[in-house]
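seq as requested:
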Amino acid sequence: MGFSAFLGNERIVAALRGALRSGRVPHALLFTGSRGVGKFTLARMFAQAVNCERMTDDFCGECATCQRISLLADPQKLIEQGLVERGESADAATVERVPLILQSHPDVWALLPDPVRLKSPVARPMLRIGQLRAVQRAAYFQPMGRRRLFILDGAETMRWDVANVFLKILEEPPGSATLILTAPSPYALLPTIVSRCLQFHFAPLPQAAVEKILKEKTARKATDVKLAAQLAEGSPGLAIEMDVTAAAESRKNALRILERAARGQGFAQLFADTAALAKDRESSFEDQIGVFYGLLTDLLELTSKIKEPVLRNANLAKELESLGKVVDSAWVLRAIAGFDELYAGARRNLNRQLGLDALAASLAQAPSGAAERRF
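struct tokens:
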């Protein structure tokens, strides 16, 4: 037990252990990287190591403190418990007055985006001002153990006006507390927040490592293990929870939208496909856009004439190669820029349907230098 159980990103683990040994624990850390790559897990492990009763630069996993903090390893149960205690029909005022805080040990808090309700959660859970004000008050309390630690998972879901409340804590950091923020990218947060945090970016794990984890923790057959590891793009957590069939189908649907847009054909069906995507509530809009980013990354490699491209969507290699003959790198870069704007617009409650339709229509224009290959 201990940090040795964490797979991948060894340099980050070594840096955190070095901070523990020196006794110079930063007041604010920012963990960035794709969903499921282990950011929350390592934050929870660091919380155990900071307060372990037996060790100074690692954690035993056996003392009472380690065991209590380890309950955060399955946050979903704690979220469901908190929502039940608050009440299924909680109004907006109650949501802020009774913030969702996961606490299995007095010195360790975990804040996750609040889904508001258990039976009918909101489409886009977010960290709310009530949660941040609770941290603002509690951060200056003296710890019962060695140090107080607050994990803010999904920090990118904070509205920027709300994030200013959190900024006050970073401007006058408490000496006996550490705040760990997790987000997919530092660019999803206010620059003033990012500048006050020690940053660590979590790289994706090799496919072989993800396959090994899946074999150990799931009972999937070999073909599903390989496909899940491919589609998860280096995120073992995402691979474990993935519905492989649904994930493969979503990529096929996204590729079909790109194909129709690139060829400028079948607009009725194209807009029907974008409408179905916009209405899908099984996955977040941000995750859906992430699927397009993965496909466009593959297309960029193919259109750039890389000798041995490593495709993220190897199961769609033939379809991607076919589309790569229709478009060029300029078209792909234009598509990526369009999805960047769409992603930013989603944070401002942009109409998904209209945004997707407008982007698809703009991409239907003949790609520069590739128009003659379309016919």
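The CA atoms of residues 330 and 339 lie 14 Å apart.
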